[in-house]
Amino acid sequence: TVDTPLLQALRLLLRHNIDSIAVVSEDQRILDVISRSDTVRIEDQGVYDTNLLVREFINSRVPAKICVFYEKDTLRRIFFHFVQQNVKELFLVDPDTGKLEGQLNISEVVFFLAFAVTAKQTPGNTASGRSGTATYASNPSHVM
Questions:
Q1: Per-residue pLDDT reduced to its tens digit, 62-115
Q2: Which candidate in 33, 35, 103, 118 could, as Cys together with 64 as Cys, close a disulfide (CB 3.0–4.6 Å)?
Q3: What phi and psi, each to the nearest 5 degrees, are found at residue 115?
Q4: 120 vs 98: CA distance, rounded Å
Q5: Residue ranges of region Disordered (predicted)?
Q6: Helix (H, G, I), strand (E, B) or coil at 75
């Protein structure tokens, strides 16, 4: 949440080996995103403060681009999001409620393609290997 110390957010990035982390409201809607590159900018500006709250940090900068996908998106559509938005992380949200349900890293997609996709699958299939739903996403246990 926005009342979490920024240092805790940075530790979550490292612990889960991810490039960005969602900052969510109490009802699990994404408010902003903190990335590893944000931390470099903080240090570069000379304002690195381990006591800084996430709220203070996100209020001191331009809001981050929040890139989402939906459970019913095809694998092709998910790839399009990664390429078009030039990001390494996408957030799975419920299209009806806007609540965060998961997070997907481009590395997970590459791993999936390298080891889980069979030769019989055709382009346009979904991340789960079936037509209809993209269910391959990380558990959002590391959100702020």
A1: 888 899 999 999 989 999 999 999 999 999 999 999 999 999 999 888 888 888
A2: 33
A3: -120, -20
A4: 34
A5: 122-144
A6: helix
